[in-house]
Amino acid sequence: MLTISFLLTQIYALPWKLYIPPKTTNPYSETIHVEEWLIEKDFSQTEIPTVDADFLTQCKRTIAYLENHPYTPLGMLSTLGYSREKRLLALQKIVSTASINPTSLQKIEWWKQHFQLFSLQAQPPNQQTRITKYLVYQVAGSTQKTDQYNHALWNLKKEFHPKSLHQHSRIDILDGVLETQKHVQPLVWLTEKAALEAQMQGTIEITTEKGSIGLYNVQYHNNMPYKKGVSATQQERYWYFRTVEEFYGWGDPEKIAILPDVSFAGDVRNLGFASMLWVTSEKKNALGLLVDTGGAFTPNLEQFDWFIGTAKDKEDFYQRAKAYPSYADVHFLILR
Q: Do β-strands 263-265 and 285-292 pair in parallel, antiparallel, or remain unpaired?
């Protein structure tokens, strides 16, 4: 049975003005009607996926992040009564229940009592949502520039402001313009192919000629737009990196640590950071959190990118990706 509050929302719901970064293409109207995109569904006859240890860990990490960064985007879910307090309480509810009475999380009655289920309606209606996959590639690199490893992961020196990175496009940087600049330094050197993969994926694991293994994640970009349909070498947007110890998702400037299989990238600004997702398909029935984003989601209400871990190369990635759906039903879980 649908709640009275939701029925009132359908009648009086405020339209949502999309967040659209400057110089980006918007495939939607500037203002959308949320009730056309998010439809409340009943939990009846539905099987909830197992709340595993990784999901609980990601919930705990997200709670800690939100306690320090409470004003992260809520997105259009805010028009459905979703609030910063409810977002935090939802995560805390699951973590505390897993500790006190974990079997409750396996019962549909518990979810129905505590959560509302809103199904994302891909356009045109009744279609499933596109699910892409992303990961961290494990590649070889060098501590020094060589004929083979001749493209660096560049890092902003501490004494310089990020605005100093706004003058050069990716095209300029691939041509070597940064090699004579004083405000940046190379972290490690890669092949052009690996450097472009790092730009696309956002995180990369590198083994150097000395046998050391390092993990690198994006930190700043050059404030130039990502252009859909443009090749990797002709993009203007370029990301600068930093050394990290864990996989990281969204954040400005501090980023949240994320885990594979329970973390999704998507349109954080319009669909809400830390939104709880339930993804169902023939291949997967899983819970996750929207804790990452990327250039393909500015704006994009019809796609999520599933973080699936690490891979040695494209073939390894393709084999791993086979276990995940290309399209699925995506639902948002909102605390009552």
A: parallel
Domain formed by 33-133+255-306+315-335, architecture: Beta Barrel (2.40)
pLDDT, residue 224, reads 92
Do 84 and 74 form a contact (C-beta atoms < 8 A)? yes
Pairwise CA distance, residues 56 & 58, whole Å: 5
CATH number of 134-244: 2.40.240.50
Q: Helix (H, G, I), strand (E, B), or coil: what is residue 144?
A: coil
pTM of structure = 0.85
| Neighbour-count burial of 316, counting CB atoms closer than 10 A to its CB (0-12 exposed, 13-18 middle, 19+ buried) | middle
| pLDDT tens string 62-99 | 999 999 999 999 999 999 989 999 999 999 999 999 99
Residues with Cβ within 8 Å of residue 173, at least 6 apart in sequence: 154, 238
DSSP H helices, 177-331, are 192-201, 268-271, 314-321
